[in-house]
Automatic annotation (TrEMBL):
Keywords: DNA damage, DNA repair, DNA replication, Hydrolase, Magnesium, Metal-binding, Mutator protein. It is an enzyme of class 3 (hydrolase). CDD domains: NUDIX_MutT_NudA_like. Its EC number is 3.6.1.55. This is 8-oxo-dGTP diphosphatase. GO terms for biological process: DNA repair; DNA replication. Its cofactor is Mg(2+). 8-oxo-dGTP binds at R38, E49, F50, P51, G52.
Amino acid sequence: MIDDCPEPNVKIDAGLPTVLVAAIALIDVDGRVLIAQRPEGKAMAGLWEFPGGKVEEGELPEAALIRECKEELDIDITAACLAPFAFASHSYEKFHLLMPLYLCRKWEGLVRGMEGQAFRWVKIRDLGEYPMPPADDPLVAMLRDFL
Ligand SMILES: Nc1nc2c([nH]c(=O)n2[C@@H]2O[C@H](COP(=O)(O)OP(=O)(O)OP(=O)(O)O)[C@@H](O)[C@H]2O)c(=O)[nH]1
Ligand SMILES: [Mg+2]
C-alpha cells in the first residue's frame, strides 16, 4: 500500500525554495570519515557535518566541492576523485535542502580548519556520538552500511 511509506521530511506544499548543497565524505586509509563542526554564528552552530556548502548559480556540484574543500579545509581535490554516493532531501523551516554526498579517498594537502572550525576523523561506527543536522541521518545510515 502506498500509504505505508514512511513519512519523509518533505513539506510538499509549503512553497519552500530548494537549496542545492554539495557535501563530501573524505575517507582516510583507515576508513575514517572527516566531519567538521559548524562554527559559531552559522545556522545549526555546534552540530557536526560533512564539509561542503551551497552550490552557486551556474556552478557544478563537483566544482563547488573543489572550491569548498580549498576554502574550508585547505586541501586540493579533483572531480575525478569524487564518487557520487547518495543524497539528502529534507525540508527545513525556511528551505528545502537537496544535498548530494560524494565520497573521496584521494586529496592533496593536510586538512586544516580554515574557518576556525573543529574537525575530527571518525570511525563510521562512532559517528553516532556526534550530533549532526537531521538531514544527515539517512546518509550516515547508508555510509554505515557501505563502509
Ligand atoms: N556542508 C553541509 N551542510 C549541511 C549538512 N547537513 C545539512 O543539513 N546542511 C545544511 O546545508 C546548508 C548549507 O551549508 P553551509 O552552511 O555549509 O553552506 P556554505 O558553506 O556555503 O556556507 P555559507 O552560506 O555561510 O557561505 C546549511 O543550512 C546546513 O545546515 C552537511 O552535512 N554538510
Ligand atoms: Mg560549508
